[in-house]
């Protein structure tokens, strides 16, 4: 059973009135260990076999995308790499006489995922919704600052970096508020949050030693 709540949209409708939209309440993040154990019950593979296969698949996907390919996994979706500038590198203006960015200034900074329609439909078939019993609150009030910081750190335990958009999804904060809070986390070494990149290419990572 999954819960949903009605969250207030950040943008008004055509009449200028606030509207509500359904949002699934994410209980927790399920890791590979748990998935491997569940899948092993219905197959002849051990959890170790399954984990090894997934790790090998991830390595091969990374190699293929690193060579300039997108990767389609039938039944799941398509993964496509995107590029950004390395930390400290100024954006190229394109104006005559301005310096140009070379390959050493550019890196893979994200991987975009587009789910297959059948995957979305299958997820819907497994989704039995009920409305959350909690009263509606603005999304930014769902978690305390320390809870939001912990959610960011938990995310970085399983992901190489965190974007402002990721943090919005994790915490429910509006984009400008999320960006300001991430900057505050970055400025305090005790939070364990650091940033790389600049401007629209800035992402957040775990600080070394944290």
Largest sheet: 3 strands, mixed
CATH superfamily of the domain at 139-210: Winged helix-like DNA-binding domain superfamily/Winged helix DNA-binding domain
CATH topology of the domain at 139-210, what is it called? Arc Repressor Mutant, subunit A
The oligomeric state of the chains shown is: single chain
Shape summary:
globular
Low-confidence stretches: none
Terminal CA distance? 36 Å
* SSE string: EEHHEEEHEHHHEE
Structural class: alpha+beta
**Order of adjacent strands in the largest pleated sheet:** 2-1-6
Helix content: 25-40%
Alpha plus pi helix count: 6
Task: Give the total of beta strands.
Answer: 8
> What portion of residues belong to β-strands?
15-25%
The pLDDT mean sits at 84
CATH architecture of the domain at 139-210: Orthogonal Bundle
CATH class of the domain at 139-210: Mainly Alpha
Which helices and strands occur, and which strands form pairs?
Layout: E1 2-8, E2 20-24, H1 32-41, H2 47-66, E3 71-73, E4 77-85, E5 106-115, H3 117-125, E6 129-131, H4 145-158, H5 164-171, H6 175-187, E7 193-196, E8 203-206
Parallel strand pairs: 1-6
Antiparallel strand pairs: 1-2, 3-4, 4-5, 7-8
Helix pairs in contact: 1-2, 5-6
What this model shows, in words?
This protein has 210 residues and is an alpha+beta fold. The chain has a domain at 139-210: Orthogonal Bundle (Arc Repressor Mutant, subunit A), CATH 1.10.10. The protein has helices at 32-41, 47-66, 117-125, 145-158, 164-171, 175-187; strands at 2-8, 20-24, 71-73, 77-85, 106-115, 129-131, 193-196, 203-206. The strands form 3 sheets. A 3-stranded mixed β-sheet has the order 2-1-6, with no helix packed on it. A 3-stranded antiparallel β-sheet has the order 3-4-5. A hairpin with a 3-residue loop joins strand 3 and strand 4 (77-85). The longest helix is centred in the first third of the chain and has 20 residues, at 47-66.
């Amino acid at each position: 059973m999954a819960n949903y709540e009605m969250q207030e949209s950040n943008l008004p409708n055509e009449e200028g009135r606030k509207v509500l939209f359904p949002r699934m309440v994410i209980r927790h993040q399920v890791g590979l260990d748990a998935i491997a154990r569940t899948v092993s019950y219905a197959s002849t593979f051990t959890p170790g076999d399954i984990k090894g296969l997934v790790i090998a698949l991830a390595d091969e996907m990374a190699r293929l995308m690193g060579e300039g390919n997108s990767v389609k996994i039938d039944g799941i979706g398509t993964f496509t790499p995107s590029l950004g500038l390395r930390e400290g590198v100024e954006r190229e203006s394109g104006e005559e006489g301005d310096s140009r960015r070379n390959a050493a200034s550019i890196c893979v900074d994200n991987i975009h995922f587009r789910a297959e329609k059948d995957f979305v439909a299958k997820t819907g078939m497994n989704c039995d919704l009920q409305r959350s019993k909690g009263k509606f609150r603005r999304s930014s009030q769902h978690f305390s600052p320390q809870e939001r910081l912990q959610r960011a750190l938990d995310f970085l335990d399983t992901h190489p970096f965190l974007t402002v958009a990721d943090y919005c999804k994790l915490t429910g904060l509006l984009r400008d508020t999320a960006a300001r809070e991430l900057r505050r986390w970055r400025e305090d070494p005790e939070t364990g949050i650091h940033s790389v990149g600049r401007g629209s290419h800035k992402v957040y990572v775990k600080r070394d030693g944290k």
